[in-house]
Amino acid sequence: MSQALVELRDVTRSFPGPPEVQALKGINLSVNPGEYVSIVGPSGSGKSTMLNILGLLDRPSVGEYRFDGHLTGGLDEDTRAAVRAQRIGFVFQAFHLMPRRSVLENVMMPMLYSGTPRTEREDRAREALHRVGLGHRIDFLPGLLSGGERQRVAVARAVVTRPKLLLADEPTGNLDGATTAGVMALFEELVTDGLALIIITHDQAVARRAPQCVRIDDGRASTDG
Amino acid sequence: MTRSARTPVEPVDDAEVVPVTDLLDPVPAADRYSFVDLLIEATSDLGTRPARLLMTLAGTILGIGALVATIGFAQTTAGQLARQFDAFAATQLIASPATAQTAGGDSVATTRLPWDAVERIERLAGVEQAAMISDVDLGSGTLTAVPVNDPSAPASAPPRLFASSAGLVDTLEGRIVHGRLFDDGHDLRRDRVAVLGSRLAERLGITRVDSQPSIFIDGLPYAVLGVFDGVQQRAELLDGVIIPTGAARDDFGLGAPGEVQARIAVGAGPPLADQSALALAPDAPETIDVAAPQGRSDLAADVQADVNLIFVVLSVIVLLAGGVGIANVTMLSVMERTGEIGLRRAIGATRRQIASQFIAESVVIGILGGLLGATAGVFAVLVIAVSQGWTPVITPWVAGSGVLLGAVVGLLAGGLPARRAAGVEPVTALRGS
Questions:
Q1: Which residue among A72, A83, A110 sits closest to B24, beta carbon to beta carbon?
Q2: Are the Cβ atoms of B347 and A113 closer than 8 angstroms?
Q3: Chain A, 53-72: which have a CB under 8 Å from a chain B CB?
Q4: Which pLDDT belongs to residue B7?
């Protein structure tokens, strides 16, 4: 078995109150490269907190998080930002596209911070957009695209830096059934390329497509059938 | 894979140093986030909301425009004042014998000016024209327009009588109202001719000189050749009669010229003060008093300083309002763009990069406001100066400083919003939007 890409060991995240809230309680999780894991659970169960810790946007209060074999607790803010830029891609339910930048500019943006060679940036953004089927929308503004197209732009933006881990928070929450199927097919294709994918979802159909599904209830994790 | 929950381990030590060489790819300097990237990011969205941009710029444009226009107006009006002031005061030189107090308390001249004083002075570089002028004491003599002495007429002081060389009125930049002035020929021939100041001519009822009316000075008839006006520097001449020096020497025993009046080039005053004393009395220059203008007018400089101070204070207040405007809009922008800040942090931007982007945006807005304000200020000075027929004067650095000041205002105004933007937690930002 290869080395885990992400590994949470007894991770607890509490927020000082009053009243103090323990959003995560002793979570253990291990995801290898090329694995596809879905995380389900009711609202407020701690799913997003877990995703933020996995994405190095937040730190565990207790426990340890290893990313690609490295303990992340001792990383300073700038290094965490650099790891996010080079190794982690994010897809959000609300897309978070820049409304006044073209589709191409939106996809190029992460490479500004990841240190991708300048000469390759535009070609890589075009390639990513072609891969998600939006080669014909390159110069459009996001406002002119459908919801599904916008989410595909967000996926292209998340993978353009060739990350090892893709974190998606309710990526199909704003999409209809047919569009959801298209986006999920895209995710599955990326996983076959060796990307580790962790999806948070409320949608049971989406969750069931993942080989592994983790249920979180009141901050505690359990393997879901 | 999940595992069952276990006893929590010790909290992670944040100070622990972790080698990250194999966690991150090395990035060549050329591919790192650069100043050019910062400028591109700061200006990319600048024109996408023109109405808001204009509102943001308004305060800075007004403040810097007012500042540049104020300094420009002050310089233009000071230049105008100096020009008018120089036209009269800064171009006139008067040389006269020094005086000393006698034991009885009277002032007496310590020397006499030579009769060729005009020639001596006119030889000096910077002197445009010179003329002698002397007060002629009539004693109890009279000066009338009729040959008879009317005992019933009310007693009044006679007009003052002056003797001068030809060219006095020209030297004083006066003008002829009627007739002509006497010339060197009249002076040499010692002709009994006179010219009158305009106020005296009016008093004597002399309105035409084509038939050369006579006036009677101590009973001697003098033909009036002309009437002059406009000698602002020697307004007393307007109430007097001027006769040639030659006639004054013959008829009234004028012993020596009273003083030499000269019109000189602007700025020639200081050197000519020394030179003219030496020219008139080479063996004892200290016996000659010379009143010469001292370079540039102090009055004009004072006026410029006063005007500057008042309006600069007003403009700075407007500019402060402009800075607060930029700060407000940038702060609003930070709040509106929380989602964008969260996204940028998520995809790898550091706090410093976020802060520098908002500061850069604010500085760019400040520079733009400074540029437009300085242009508007210079344009306002030009329009008003040209419409008044003045020469617009504005030091080049004023416009340049306007742009620089805009940048400084932007920098100061962007500080607080940038700090706030850098403090935005990506988790909160992404959840909130």
A1: A83
A2: yes
A3: 55, 57-64, 67-68, 70-72
A4: 37
pLDDT along chain B (433 residues), means of 10: 39 46 80 88 82 82 85 78 61 86 76 88 89 86 71 68 88 86 90 90 83 85 90 84 91 88 82 87 88 65 67 77 79 83 91 93 90 92 86 84 89 89 82 58
Separation of first and last alpha carbons in chain B: 31
Tell me, yes or no, if B13 comes closer than 8 A to chain A by beta carbon: yes
Domain ranges of chain B: 34-83+299-432, 92-291
Q: What is the pLDDT of residue B298?
A: 58
Encoded amino acid at B184, one letter: D
Q: How far apart are CA A118 and CA A95, in angstroms?
A: 25
A94 interfaces chain B, CB cutoff of 8 Å: yes
| DSSP string of B325-389, one letter each residue | HHHHHHHHHHHHTHHHHHHHHHTT--HHHHHHHHHHHHHHHHHHHHHHHHHHHHHHHHHHHHHHT
Residue A124, CA distances (Å) to A116, A118, A156 in order: 9, 10, 10
Contacts with A, B 32-71, CB within 8 Å? 32-33, 37, 41, 44-45, 48
Q: Which residues of A touch B12 (CB under 8 A)?
A: 59-60, 62-64, 71, 73-74
Note the ipTM here: 0.91
Question: 10 Å Cβ neighbour count for B170?
Answer: 16
CB crowding B136-163: b at 16 or more within 10 Å, else e: beeeebebbbeeeeeeeeeeeeebbbbb
| B350–A116 C-beta distance less than 8 A | no
Which amino acid is present at B162?
F
> Roughly what angle, to the nearest 10 degrees, separates helices B338-346 and B298-336?
70
Q: Which residues of A touch B10 (CB under 8 A)?
A: 62
**Residue B423: CB atoms within 10 Å:** 12
The model carries a pTM of 0.64
CA A189 to chain centre: 15
Query: Would you call B346 and A113 a contact, using CB atoms and an 8 Å cutoff?
Result: no
Q: Could you read off the pLDDT of A12-23 as tens digits, one per residue?
A: 999 887 888 888
Interface test with A, best of B35, B430, B431 (most A CBs within 10 A): B430
Count CB-CB contacts under 10 A for residue A120.
12
Closest C-alpha among A134, A138, A147 to residue A173: A147
Q: Which residues of B touch A86 (CB under 8 A)?
A: 24-25, 348
The CATH superfamily assigned to A6-224 is P-loop containing nucleotide triphosphate hydrolases (3.40.50.300)
**A91 to chain B, closest Cα gap in Å:** 10
* Cα A38-A43-A48 angle, rounded to 5 deg: 55
